[in-house]
Amino acid sequence: MAPRGRKRKAEAAMVAAAEKREKLADSGEGMEEATVVIEHCTSRVYGRNAAALSQALRLEAPELPVKVNPTKPRRGSFEVTLLRPDGSSAELWTGIKKGPPRKLKFPEPQEVVEELKKYLS
């Protein structure tokens, strides 16, 4: 049998998440407006919740573009991030460390909308 690889430690996962956020922020250089990014695992349950959330965000702030999975999502992830025009980012919701049960990973759309209003005002 082939040797098994080591599991990633929690610190390495957090560093990778930070690097990914920086990469997302860097890819948005030159953008003139804020953007909301929803990263979710490609499971059906995650997709349904992301669709409901993106719809709520578009209704509340139609001037903000909402991107769903602009890059390949991490396994089991559900995050909502606001990318600002100056290149900084603000995390509106993260469900990575939440659960079980799985339903704790997903926010109520109104919670995220309220958080978004805080950062936009």
SSE order and pairing:
Layout: H1 10-27, E1 35-40, H2 44-60, E2 66-68, E3 78-83, E4 89-94, H3 109-120
Parallel strand pairs: 1-2
Antiparallel strand pairs: 1-3, 3-4
Helix pairs in contact: 2-3
Structure description:
This protein is of the alpha+beta class. It has a single domain (35-120), classed as Glutaredoxin (3-Layer(aba) Sandwich). Helix content is 39%, strand content 17%. The protein is built from 3 helices and 4 strands; from the N terminus they run αβαβββα. It has a 4-stranded mixed beta sheet with strand order 2-1-3-4, with helices on both faces. The longest helix has 18 residues, at 10-27. The model has no long low-confidence stretch (mean pLDDT 78). InterPro entries: Selenoprotein_Rdx-typ, SelWTH-like, Thioredoxin-like_sf. Belongs to the SelWTH family. May be involved in a redox-related process. Keywords: Acetylation, Redox-active center, Selenocysteine. Pfam families: Rdx (PF10262).
